[in-house]
Prior knowledge:
DNA polymerase, domain 1, 10 strands, globular
Amino acid sequence: MKYPKRLKPGQWGSTNRSSKPKVITFDAYNTLYSTTLPVMEQYSRLGRKYGLNSSAQELTLKFPGVFKNLREEHPNYGKYTGITADKWWEILISNVFAPAKVSSQMINEILHVFEGFGAYTVYPDLLELLELIQQEFPEVVLGVVSNTDPIMYKLLENIGLKSYFKNHVYLSYDLELSKPDPVFFEIVLQDVVKQHPELLKNSTIEELKSGCWHVGDEENNDLNCPASAGWSAVLLDRMNKYNHFSGTLERAQRSLHQLYTDKIDNNADQSWELSMKQVDAIQLSERQYVISNFRTLSQLLFPRPNNQQSLN
């Protein structure tokens, strides 16, 4: 079969997709939750409250370099260099605003705001999908697979998502392993099976992989990495940054600098509006897909006549 190909809504049930999902994992940031406004716009607003006049544009230009350098100096959010994850973020905030001096009170307020709905939102289409699975497909195991630090545990609780994932939250900080290493997904599946041995009742772990899906917003980490581990993989691209939804279906290569900027540039209203205009899915291979929103994913994974939510 020739790939890539565009899948219209009426074609979802006839694709060469894998068997019924048994395990579905999600990336966290920009997948389960996203910022309401660009991060540096929020930083700039809080900075003005404390007498700092750094513009959002100025902070945005500085962020990729600061983020890259801090990851190199204190890898895995400082776990190997003797600092806490909170301290790691304190350093990042200070360095982004440098040479201006940032008070500890301001840093604490920023950290607090970014622990919940003060900075983030959860899109309705995600909640629809999670509720559908929880109510009608409770046998499907849901998990989180993310390159992040333990602060995310508090965030998941504060934004009301923790209960969907129970004991299946897998962070690079804890595992000391990160995407795009496919071993990450091997370890995740081993733990899922340990907690749910019934998944292997009629299959081997290799056969089980045909029912394992991962969804995330970065092509290398969330599309190529799980696919190389034998999973089906879905790239969530609300803003068509990878250009898969263009008329030619030709993808755009994103540099490391662009990927770092992607982490801070989301405007929830804009990305929601654009994502809901795209109802098609793009199939890149037998097990790789691109979607713009979770309503498309819902119909791709659970294609039933009564699962036809409005995409308006």
